[in-house]
TrEMBL record:
<dbReference type="GO" id="GO:0004065">
    <property type="term" value="F:arylsulfatase activity"/>
</dbReference>
<comment type="similarity">
    <text>Belongs to the sulfatase family.</text>
</comment>
<dbReference type="InterPro" id="IPR050738">
    <property type="entry name" value="Sulfatase"/>
</dbReference>
<keyword id="KW-0732">Signal</keyword>
<feature type="domain" description="N-sulphoglucosamine sulphohydrolase C-terminal">
    <location>
        <begin position="49"/>
        <end position="185"/>
    </location>
</feature>
<keyword id="KW-0378">Hydrolase</keyword>
<dbReference type="Pfam" id="PF16347">
    <property type="entry name" value="SGSH_C"/>
</dbReference>
<dbReference type="GO" id="GO:0046872">
    <property type="term" value="F:metal ion binding"/>
</dbReference>
<dbReference type="InterPro" id="IPR032506">
    <property type="entry name" value="SGSH_C"/>
</dbReference>
<protein>
    <recommendedName>
        <fullName>N-sulphoglucosamine sulphohydrolase C-terminal domain-containing protein</fullName>
    </recommendedName>
</protein>
<dbReference type="InterPro" id="IPR017850">
    <property type="entry name" value="Alkaline_phosphatase_core_sf"/>
</dbReference>
<keyword id="KW-0479">Metal-binding</keyword>
<keyword id="KW-0106">Calcium</keyword>
């Protein structure tokens, strides 16, 4: 599959070059979720598609913006798919803030060399029994810390991603103050977003 993707991206880039459009075309490549474990594994990341661990939510993001992004640059700032829309809007001159309220932030400052975004945390709300994880829950990342809270069965996990990228050392018991802080931040975010809440099946 990787070879197929690589081949067809190459065909696309070659076609743009042939049409003299490559210098005037923004290319954004990313995945919607972590890899499916039946086909491969995501090591050193834990688990894969359908999970709230890094193997399920951390994906590649490559952006080509001719004349704007310096070649061979990388960025370690965590971003989320919600950021793609406001990024494109600013890239094409429609402003950093689209007309309607949205959750994401423009990545243009990062693309032009800034080191961080003005954002406190990233949140994921997944109150479903996915075919893979079969555990509804949510996650929040703030700085290097990430909290995962599962609803069924009830379980809280806390990781420091700077030192534990494979999420093997649960720090919830030893850092109760950080658990409380992240629970508070997630609850505040949830009230602001007001999503459809999970509920018991009456049947």
């Amino acid at each position: 599959m990787i070879e197929n993707v690589d081949t067809n991206i190459g065909r696309l880039l070659a076609e743009l070059e042939m049409m003299n459009l490559s210098d005037n075309t923004i290319i954004i490549f990313y995945s919607d979720n972590g890899g499916e474990q039946k086909a491969t594994n995501n090591k050193p990341l834990r688990e894969g598609k359908g999970f709230l661990y890094e193997g399920g939510i951390r994906v590649p993001l490559i952006i080509k913006w001719p004349g704007k992004i310096a070649e061979n640059t990388t960025c370690d700032t965590p971003v989320i798919s919600d950021d793609i829309y406001p990024t494109i809007m600013e890239m094409v001159g429609k402003g950093a803030k689209p007309a309607k309220d949205i959750d994401g932030l423009s990545l243009v400052p990062l693309l032009l060399g800034e080191k961080s975004l003005k954002r406190e945390q990233l949140c994921w709300y997944y109150p479903h029994y996915s075919p893979q994880a079969k555990m509804p829950g949510h996650a929040i990342r703030k700085g290097d810390f990430k909290l995962i809270e599962y609803y069924d069965p009830e379980k809280i996990e806390l990781y420091n991603l700077k030192y534990d990228i494979n999420e093997s050392q649960n720090l919830a018991d030893s850092h109760p103050e950080k658990v409380h802080e992240l629970e508070y931040e997630f609850d505040r975010w949830l009230k602001k977003m007001n999503p459809v809440m999970h509920s018991l099946n009456p049947n």
